[in-house]
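Recap from last week: sequence in, structure out.
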Amino acid sequence: MDDLPTLTALPAPTNARPLLGMTILVVEDSLYACDAMRLMCLHSGARLRRADCLRSARRHLGVYRPSAVIVDLGLPDGSGLDLIEELAAAEPRVTSILATSGMDGAEADARAAGADGFIAKPLAHIGAFQQAILATLPAERRPGGPRTLRDEVVRPDPLAYRDDMEHASTLLDQHQEGPVLDYVAQFLDGVARSAEDDQLVQAAGALARAPSAGPVSYTQLARLAGLVQERLVGRVAM
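Predicted structure tokens:
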């Protein structure tokens, strides 16, 4: 089944809803970041589908062909760069392939893998989201005439942030070392950037850098786990 059968079958985009007619597959493990993109798609006229890992994304792409795919680079079952490479080499090719991350150097890596565009975390402004996608589309899929760049900021559901914290807390309880801990550090870094939670960004970043700097210390791990618990019990307002 194809979400993009023919260009003539799609409603024409407008200045108010420049992504009208598009189906966007978001490959993102964070519920909070995904809710931000859901709101942006809602305001832009696009329909959103979500996959939370590489396996789910590949299963989806085996059935549907979306108009655009936005791939988070840090996923629970591997790197989003692998999926971007697959999408860039596929025939027929998805019209628009974008990457999203808050990590340093991520944009260069994504473009080297074949991404057409990049959306930096935190995801907040509707206009910047629209512009990042429109820049990757052919002229006939862009609204004509001058367009005001919207500066509204979306506010994702705080419960989605709590759900992300619960997920991270469970993994931190079960894993104190190894690749799962590396994933948790990267996951929390991305979620915290999306929520502009600077304290958690710093703690997650310190843990993410630990493998190159030496063994993970109990102090680093305990600090990160403590910050996650603070957000779960509501001592930190979102």
